[in-house]
Specification:
The complex is a heterodimer.
Chain A lengths: L3 E2 L5 E2 L31 H4 L4 H10 L1 H17 L15 H18 L9 H31 L6 H5 L3 E5 L5 H14 L3 E5 L2 E6 L6 H17 L7 E9 L3 E3 L7 E12 L8 H7 L4 E13 L11 E10 L4 E3 L2 E22 L10 E5 L6 E3 L5 E8 L2 E3 L5 E3 L8 E7 L11 E6 L2 E4 L6 E21 L2 H20 L3 E8 L2 E8 L3 H14 L6 E2 H9 L13
Antiparallel strand pairs in A: 1-2, 3-23, 3-24, 4-5, 5-22, 6-21, 7-8, 8-9, 9-10, 11-12, 12-13, 12-21, 14-15, 15-18, 16-17, 18-19, 19-20, 22-23
Helix pairs in contact in A: 2-5, 3-5, 5-8, 8-10
Chain B lengths: L1 H27 L4 H37 L7 H23 L2 H18 L16 H31 L7 H28 L4 E6 L5 E6 L5 E2 L4 E2 L9 E2 L6 H25 L3 H5 L8 H34 L8 H19 L8 H23 L9
Parallel strand pairs in B: 3-5
Antiparallel strand pairs in B: 1-2, 1-4
Helix pairs in contact in B: 1-2, 1-4, 2-3, 3-4, 3-5, 4-5, 4-6, 5-9, 5-11, 6-7, 9-10, 9-11, 10-11
Classes of the chains: A alpha+beta, B mainly alpha.
The complex binds protoporphyrin IX containing FE (HEM).
C-alpha cells in the first residue's frame, strides 16, 4: 500500500486521515469538527479489508462489536440468577427433579437449557473468549499507531486542523501578541503544561500518559482472563475437604503426606442472649446467633528422613486458631473453617455383668474407641472379650444383611464375643451379643453374661477446606494492572492547547480527550490574565440549534 | 451513643430538606437577576453550605454508630442503604465545586433524602455480626463500594436533569412516559415511606396464623393493613381486617402486601400531582430548569461515571474478590450478588465505550445513566430481599 506524503513533508501510512505531523486533513470529511479519536491515525482494521484474516481482525477490533460482546455477556450472566445455580441448591437434592419441583415448567426449561450450570457452560466460555480476543485485537489495532502519532506530532499545525478543533478562535490583528504569548507560556507552565515551541508557535500539552490508560487496563484484563482460563487445568488448583476429630490428626491432602493437621479443640461461641446491646436483634432472629467457629489447630510436618508408612516423627510447625475469615496458611496452602459436627460418638465404655451371683467382675471395664477399636480385650482375671464385627454406621442392606454405610460412627453396632476364664477361645464359641446405643441383643441363645454400656464419649469434629490456587498470583497481577490503567485513564486527562502567531493573526485551539470543562477552565485562566480571548466551543453552536430556547450564556464556569 | 447517632441522622435529613429548598430558591430567584444578581448567587452558596453541614451530620451518625456497635455500620439493609445516601451526599459535596451547578443540588438533595428515609424503614437495632462478616474486609469492601455507587448515582441525577431539560413534554412519547415512570418510582418510594412511617407511628400490627410452604402452621405479622392475605390465613390479632385476596404459600404475603400498598399509594399521589399540574410532572418541572446548559449536564454525568467507575470496581469487584477468597475460600462463586455486581460493572464499561462513539452523547447517554442506577438499586434491594444468596444478611 502506498504511503501518503503530506505537504508538510511527513510521510504517513496509507489510511491516515489527519497527517501525523501537522494534522492537515488528508481525507476530506464532511463534518465541521475533525474526528480526533486516535488522532486520525491509520489503523490496520481501517486499511486492510481483503483477506479472511483481515475480516476477523476487523470484526474483533471494532468497538461496536466489543460493546455487543459486553452486552451479550451481561445479559446471559443475568439469566443465571433467575433460579439458583446447581451448586447452591440444597445439598442432597437431585437437580434433575429439583428445578421442576421448585419452579415448575420454567424451572424444567431452565434445567434443560443447562442454565443451572450457566457459568461453566461452553457457550458462556465462548463469550468470554470472544471478549478476550476482542480485547487483544482492538488494543493492538490502536495502540501502535496512536503512539506514533502522538510522538510525531508537530508544534505547528496545519490551519485546517486547528479550525476543526472543538475549541477554536482566531483574532485578526491581535495587539501585543508577542507579549501575550510569553505570558501564556508561563501561565500554562504554572498549570503544569509541558510547553513546546517552534517558529513562535506554542503547543502546551498535559496528561498525555493518560492516553495509555485504556490499553493498560485492557492488558490487565487480558492477564486476569488468562489467569481465569488456567483454572481449567486441574493441577493449577486444589480443592479438598478434611474432617478432623478433636485430639486427632489427619494428613492434609495435596501435600504428598508431608503435612498433618491436629485438631486440639473445636468450639462454637454464641452471642450472649442477655447482652442488652443485641437483645432486640436476637429476639427478631428468634434463636441463638453464632459468634465464632474456631478450630485450635496445630500444623505438623513429617521429619526429613522418616519413610512413608513407618512410624514417622512429626514436628510441630505452628499453632493457629482457624476461624471463618482467618484461615491457616502455609506454603500457598490455606485451610478454611467451613463445617463442623458436634458431639460425634467417639468411644463407649462397657462393663460385664453375670447372671450368677458370686462371680466378681468389678475389674472388668473397657473402653472401645469407635474410630479404632481393638480386636481383643483381655483381663487379669482371665476374661476375654473379642470384637467379632463392628459396624460404625449400621444398616440392614437390600439383601437383609447387616452392613455399614461408612466409617463414621453415627450409629455404631458391635458384635462382642465373651469368653470366661475357663473357655478356650481357639476351640469354643463364646456368647455373642449385638451392642449399640439402646441395643443389646444376645445372638446365640440365652446369655449368662451381659455387656453393659456405662459411658459414652463424644467429640467435636471440624470440617476444613484445603485450598491451593496457583492462578491467584496471575489473577492478582491482572487485577492490579487493570486498576492502574483504570485510574490512569479516568483521573487524568490529555489536554492540548495550540497557540499560533500567523503573521499577527492569533490562532487558538484546544483539544481534550475528556473533561472539556477542565480545558475550558484553563483557557479562562489564560483569557483572564492576558488579552487572549476565550475560544468558541464549536460543538455547542451546533447543539444549540437542536435545543432551541437556551438563552443564557454558555460559559460553563458560570454554573 | 446509639441515640445520638440516630438523632444525627434525623438532623442530616432535615438539613438536606433545607439545602434542597435553598437550591430551589437560588434557581427560581434568578428571574430577578438583573435587580439583585449577587443575592441570588448566595442562596446557592447557602444551599451548598447546608449540604456540607448535612453531610457532616450524616458522617457523625456514621462515626457514632460505628463506635456504638463496634464495627463499621454497613452490615445490614438499614446501615448499608443509609451509607449509600451518605455517599451520594459526599459525592455531591465533592463534585459541586467543580461545576457549581445549583440545578444538580436541587435534584440531588431530594434523592439523598429519599434514600436516607427509605433506609430508616428497615430494622435499625444493633445486630450481632455473624462470623462471615467479622473482617476488616467488610469495612474496606463495603465502604469503597458504597462510595463508588454514590458517585455513580450523581450520574443518574445529572442524567435525569438532562432528560427533564431536553425532552419535549408537549407531545406524548415513549420518552415522556419513561421520564414520568422514573418520577413515579420516586413518588411511590416516598409513598411507601409515608405509609410505613404513619402506620408505624400508630403501632399498627396485624397478625395471621397461616400454613407455610412446608405445610406447617406459622404466624406472620403485617405492619400495613392486609390487602393480600397469607395462605389459609386467619386473623389472630385485634387490629387488622380480612384480606381481599389470598396468595399461595411460596410468596411472602406481608412483603407483597407492602409492595401493593406502595404501588397504589404511589399511583394515587402521582395521579393527584397530574391532576393539580394538568401536565406531565416532568413537563411541570421543565420550566424551572430551562436555563440549564444540556451539554454541561451531559459532561457532568459522564464525569461522575468516569470518577465513580474505578472506585466501584475497586470496592465492588476487586476488594470483594479478596474478601471472598479469605472468607469463602474462593474469590468468585457466581453468587447472585456477585453476578449482579459484575453486571453493573459490565454495564458501565459498555457505557464508557459507547461514549467513545458520537451518537451516544446527550439523551441516550442520560438514559443509560438512569438504567445504571436502576441496576445498583436492583442489586441493593431486589437481590438482597428476593433472590436470597450468601450475601443476604438483611
Ligand atoms: C469488560 C471488558 C472491558 C473493560 C472493563 C474495558 C474498559 C475500558 C475503559 C475503562 C476504557 C477507558 C474509557 C474511557 O476512558 O472513557 C476503555 C477504552 C477502550 N476500550 Fe475497553 N474495556 C473492555 C472491553 C473492550 C473491548 C472488548 C474492546 C474491543 C473492541 C474495547 C475497546 C476499547 C477502546 C477502543 C477504547 C478506547 C481507547 C482509547 O481511547 O485510546 N474494550 N476500555
Amino acid at each position: 500500500m502506498e504511503k501518503v506524503k503530506c505537504e508538510c513533508g511527513h510521510v504517513n501510512p496509507y489510511g491516515t486521515y489527519l497527517c501525523e505531523s501537522c494534522g492537515k486533513p488528508l481525507i476530506e470529511e464532511k463534518s465541521k469538527l475533525a474526528n480526533m479519536r486516535y488522532e486520525g491515525v491509520a489503523r490496520r482494521s481501517q486499511t486492510y479489508t481483503r483477506t479472511f484474516v483481515d475480516k476477523i481482525w476487523n470484526f474483533f477490533s471494532s468497538v461496536k462489536v466489543g460493546i455487543w460482546i459486553i452486552v451479550v455477556l451481561l445479559l446471559t450472566s443475568s439469566l443465571g440468577t433467575l433460579f439458583p445455580q446447581e451448586m447452591y441448591i440444597p445439598p442432597g437434592e437431585n437437580a434433575t427433579i429439583y428445578y421442576e419441583q421448585e419452579y415448575g415448567t420454567l424451572g424444567k426449561l431452565y434445567y434443560q437449557l443447562g442454565f443451572h450450570n450457566l457459568y461453566s457452560s461452553w457457550w458462556y466460555m465462548l463469550i468470554i473468549a470472544a471478549l478476550g480476543i476482542s480485547l487483544v485485537i482492538c488494543s493492538l489495532d490502536r495502540v501502535v499507531p496512536l503512539h506514533r502519532a502522538l510522538k510525531t506530532q508537530r508544534v505547528t499545525r496545519h490551519e485546517a486542523f486547528l479550525k476543526r478543533q472543538r475549541l477554536f478562535s482566531q483574532t485578526d490583528n491581535a495587539e501585543n501578541i508577542d507579549e501575550d504569548m510569553i505570558k501564556a507560556e508561563s501561565l500554562l507552565k504554572e498549570k503544569r503544561y509541558k510547553i513546546r515551541k517552534e517558529n513562535g508557535n506554542i503547543l502546551a500539552e498535559k496528561g498525555r500518559f493518560s492516553r495509555w490508560g485504556p490499553y493498560v487496563n485492557h492488558i490487565g484484563l487480558i492477564i486476569f482472563l488468562i489467569g481465569g482460563m488456567l483454572r481449567f487445568f486441574p493441577e493449577m488448583y486444589l480443592d479438598e475437604h478434611v474432617w478432623v476429630r478433636e485430639g486427632e490428626q489427619e494428613v492434609i491432602g495435596g501435600t504428598n503426606g508431608e503435612y498433618f493437621l491436629r485438631n486440639n479443640e473445636f468450639m462454637i461461641e454464641l452471642y450472649d442472649e442477655e447482652d442488652e446491646k443485641y437483645q432486640p436483634a436476637l429476639e427478631r432472629a428468634g434463636g441463638p446467633v453464632v459468634k465464632t467457629y474456631q478450630t485450635s489447630a496445630t500444623l505438623l510436618r513429617r521429619e526429613a528422613g522418616g519413610t512413608i508408612g513407618s512410624e514417622t516423627e512429626l514436628a510441630e510447625v505452628k499453632d493457629h486458631d482457624i476461624r471463618v475469615n482467618d484461615p491457616l496458611t502455609f506454603e500457598g496452602f490455606s485451610l478454611y473453617q467451613v463445617d463442623y459436627k458436634l458431639n460425634e460418638l467417639s468411644s463407649f465404655t462397657f462393663t460385664l455383668e453375670s447372671e450368677e451371683e458370686n462371680t466378681d467382675l468389678t475389674d472388668i471395664q473397657f473402653e472401645v474407641d469407635l474410630n479404632d477399636p481393638e480386636d481383643v480385650y483381655e483381663f487379669d482375671n482371665g476374661y476375654r472379650i473379642e470384637i467379632l464385627e463392628y459396624f460404625p454406621n449400621f444398616v440392614i442392606d437390600d439383601n437383609r444383611e447387616p452392613t455399614t454405610i461408612n466409617r463414621i460412627p453415627d450409629n455404631p453396632r458391635i458384635i462382642f464375643e465373651v469368653f470366661p476364664p475357663e473357655a478356650d477361645p481357639e476351640e469354643e464359641q463364646g456368647e455373642l451379643s449385638l451392642v449399640g446405643i439402646q441395643v443389646n441383643e444376645p445372638l446365640n441363645g440365652e446369655n449368662d453374661y451381659t455387656i453393659r454400656m456405662t459411658d459414652v464419649d463424644m467429640v467435636n469434629v471440624t470440617g476444613l477446606t484445603i485450598r491451593k490456587d496457583r492462578t491467584l498470583p496471575i489473577i492478582s497481577v491482572g487485577g492490579f494492572i487493570f486498576m492502574i490503567g483504570l485510574v490512569q485513564g479516568s483521573y487524568w486527562h490529555h489536554r492540548r492547547i495550540w497557540i499560533q502567531n500567523r503573521n499577527g493573526r492569533l490562532v487558538l485551539a484546544g483539544h481534550a480527550n475528556k473533561n472539556w470543562h477542565g480545558l475550558k477552565k484553563d483557557f479562562k485562566y489564560l483569557s483572564d490574565q492576558t488579552t487572549i480571548p476565550m475560544p468558541v466551543d464549536q460543538s455547542e453552536e451546533s447543539s444549540e440549534e437542536e435545543n432551541e430556547g437556551v438563552n443564557e450564556s454558555h460559559d460553563p464556569t458560570q454554573r | 451513643m446509639i441515640q445520638l447517632s440516630a438523632n444525627m441522622l434525623y438532623a442530616a435529613f432535615f438539613l438536606y430538606i433545607l439545602s434542597a429548598v435553598l437550591f430551589a430558591v437560588s434557581i427560581t430567584g434568578s428571574k430577578f437577576k438583573n435587580h439583585k444578581g449577587e443575592e441570588n448567587n448566595k442562596a446557592g452558596l447557602f444551599g451548598y453550605t447546608t449540604a456540607i453541614l448535612a453531610f457532616a451530620a450524616s458522617l457523625t451518625y456514621f462515626v457514632t454508630r460505628w463506635i456504638a456497635v463496634g464495627y463499621a455500620p454497613v452490615s445490614n439493609m438499614f446501615e448499608y442503604t443509609a451509607a449509600l445516601g451518605i455517599a451520594l451526599g459526599l459525592a455531591f459535596v465533592i463534585i459541586h465545586p467543580i461545576y457549581r451547578n445549583n440545578y444538580l443540588g436541587l435534584f440531588t438533595m431530594p434523592v439523598v433524602m429519599l434514600i436516607i428515609a427509605y433506609a430508616s424503614m428497615f430494622p435499625r437495632e444493633v445486630q450481632p455480626l455473624i462470623p462471615a462478616l467479622q473482617s476488616h474486609w467488610l469495612t474496606i469492601h463495603v465502604i469503597t463500594t458504597v462510595l463508588g455507587q454514590g458517585i455513580l448515582a450523581i450520574g443518574f441525577v445529572a442524567g435525569l436533569l438532562y432528560l427533564i431539560r431536553v425532552i419535549d413534554f408537549k407531545k406524548t412519547s415513549k420518552k415522556v412516559k419513561g421520564v414520568e415512570f422514573i418520577i413515579y418510582t420516586l413518588v411511590a418510594t416516598a409513598a411507601y415511606i409515608g405509609l410505613s412511617f404513619g402506620f408505624g407511628a400508630a403501632d399498627y400490627e396485624a397478625n395471621f396464623a397461616y400454613i407455610n410452604e412446608q405445610g406447617n402452621e406459622a404466624e406472620v405479622a403485617y405492619f400495613l393493613p392486609p390487602l393480600i392475605g397469607p395462605n389459609e390465613g386467619e386473623l389472630i390479632s385485634e387490629q387488622g381486617m380480612s384480606p381481599l385476596v389470598e396468595v399461595p404459600a411460596f410468596i411472602r404475603s406481608n412483603d407483597l402486601n407492602t409492595v401493593v400498598w406502595s404501588v397504589l399509594a404511589g399511583l394515587l399521589l402521582y395521579g393527584l400531582l397530574r391532576l393539580v399540574l394538568r401536565k406531565p410532572v416532568g413537563g411541570a418541572i421543565q420550566p424551572f430548569v430551562k436555563n440549564v446548559n444540556p451539554q454541561t449536564v451531559d459532561e457532568m454525568s459522564y464525569r461522575a461515571i468516569a470518577i465513580g467507575f474505578p472506585i466501584f470496581t475497586l470496592g465492588g469487584l476487586i476488594f470483594a474478590m479478596i474478601w471472598a477468597q479469605i472468607a469463602w475460600t474462593r474469590f468468585w462463586g457466581w453468587d447472585p450478588k456477585e453476578v449482579w455486581a459484575l453486571i453493573t460493572f459490565l454495564f458501565y464499561a459498555a457505557y464508557l465505550h459507547l461514549r467513545l462513539s458520537r451518537g451516544w452523547h446527550g439523551e441516550k447517554s442520560a438514559w443509560l445513566c438512569v438504567i445504571g442506577f436502576a441496576l445498583i438499586m436492583f442489586n441493593l434491594i431486589f437481590v438482597n430481599l428476593v433472590i436470597a444468596g450468601l450475601h443476604s444478611y438483611a
